[in-house]
Amino acid sequence: MVDKNLFLYDLAVVTIMKNEAPYVKEWLDYHLLAGVDHFYIYDNESPDNLKEVLQPYIDAELVTYTFYPGKCRQLEAYIDAVKQYKYFCRYMAWIDADEFIFPKSKPTITEVADDILSNVPHYVAGLGVNLNAYGSNGMEKADLSRSVLERFTRRAENDWTPPLIEDSPQHGGNAHVSTIANPRRVKYFPTPHAPAYFTFCAAINELGNLVTDFSSFPVSTEKIVMNHYSVKSKEEYVKKISRGNADHAENTYNMDNFYKYDRNEVFDDSILKYRDARKAALISAGGMEAVIHSKPIDYLRIFNTMAQNLLPALSTVMPREFFNNKVENFLTCLHLTSYLKGKIFDDNGAKIFEEMSLMVLYKSLFAEVQIADVELLLKEMPYILTKPYPVVKDIYKTLIRFLPQILLVFRMQNAWQQFTDLEHEIEMLKNFNDVMDN
Question: The whole model's pTM is what?
Answer without folding.
Answer: 0.93
